[in-house]
Amino acid sequence: MGDIKVPPEFLLHRGVGLVEFFDLPETELDDLQPLIDRFAAEGRERFSFHAPIARPEEFNHSGVTCFFLSEDEKRRETSFDLLGMTMDLAGRWQADYVVTHLTYGPTDCKDPELAYVLAVEACHRIADMSSSVGIPVDLEFAAYTDSFNDPLHLTEIVSDRPELGICVDIGHVSIGATLRGRDFYDDIDALLPETRSAHLWNTLGAEHTAQHHHTPLHPSQNSKNGWIDVEFVIDKILTKDKSIDLVFEYPVDNVTEDIQAGYDWVISMADRYK
C-alpha cells in the first residue's frame, strides 16, 4: 500500500478516473491528503466517500449506517449520526459525492407502508444534510428488505430532491432481482432515471457471493456461464448518461495482471462514450 498505513481490509475502491474511500481507520481521518495524493498520482484525481468513512469502536456493526428503516428511533439516529460524520468530512475534503445504503434487511421494519414513510423521511433528511454541506448523496439500492425492495419506489422518492441520486450496485441488483423473482435488467432500467454512480463487481448468485464476497471483474466472465453481463449493463448505464461514475467495489492491495485486465476491460467500454 505504499507509504499509506492502511491494510487491505480497509476499503479503497478504485474507479474510472476516481477512487471511493470507505471504512478507513479513525487515525487516517486527521489528514487524508496523502491518501488523496496517492490516488491522484494514479490518475484518479476525483474521489467520493462511502458511508461510513470510519466506523467508531462503539459501533462496529455490519449494518454500518443503514438503520434508516428501523422502527427503533435510537438505531435510526445512530445511522444519521454516522452519516453526518461522513458528510462533514466529505465537506471538509471536498469529496465529489457520498454514497450510503438506505436499507438493511435484518433490522428494517416489516410493514411496507411504514417502511415507505420512513424511507421518504430518511431521504428528505439526507437531502437536507447534503444541502447543508454542499455535497450530493447517492443512495445505493438493494432489494434485500421485504418491506421496501421496489426500485421504482426509490426512484420516485429520489426524484423529488435534486441533492439525491442513486448508486446502482450491479451485484446487489442482480442478487436482489433473483430473490424477488424479477428480471435484473428491468430493475436496472427502473433505477437509471436517477442513477449518478455505479458499483461494479461480479457474482454467480447469492451463495457464490456469500463465499467470495465481491468478485473482481475480468473479461473472461461470460454471461453464458452465469456471470452478470457487465458489458451490456455498462452500455445501458452510459447510454443513459456518460458522466455516471463507475467504481470497482472491491478493495485491491496489489493491482495484479488479472485485476488490471478487469480495469482495462471497463475503461475500454467507458472510452466509447467520451
SS field, number of helical segments: 9
Strands, count: 8
Q: Radius of gyration, rounded?
A: 18 Å
Low-confidence stretches: 1-6
Q: How is this fold's topology laid out?
A:
Elements: E1 11-14, E2 18-24, H1 33-40, E3 46-54, H2 73-93, E4 98-101, H3 112-133, E5 137-140, H4 151-158, E6 164-169, H5 170-180, H6 184-191, E7 195-200, H7 206-212, H8 230-240, E8 245-248, H9 257-271
Parallel strand pairs: 2-3, 3-4, 4-5, 5-6, 6-7, 7-8
Antiparallel strand pairs: 1-2
Helix pairs in contact: 2-3, 3-4, 4-6, 5-6
What is shown here, in short?
The chain is α/β, with parallel strands linked by helices.
Key attributes of the depicted protein:
274 residues, alpha/beta, 8-stranded mixed β-sheet, 9 helices, 8 strands, 41% helix, 16% strand
Written account of the structure:
- The protein is α/β, with parallel strands linked by helices and 274 residues long.
- It has nine helices and eight strands.
- It has helices at 33-40, 73-93, 112-133, 151-158, 170-180, 184-191, 206-212, 230-240, 257-271, and strands at residues 11-14, 18-24, 46-54, 98-101, 137-140, 164-169, 195-200, 245-248.
- The chain has an eight-stranded mixed beta sheet.
- A hairpin with a 3-residue loop joins strand 1 and strand 2.
- The longest helix is centred in the middle third of the chain and has 22 residues, at 112-133.
- The relative contact order is 0.12.
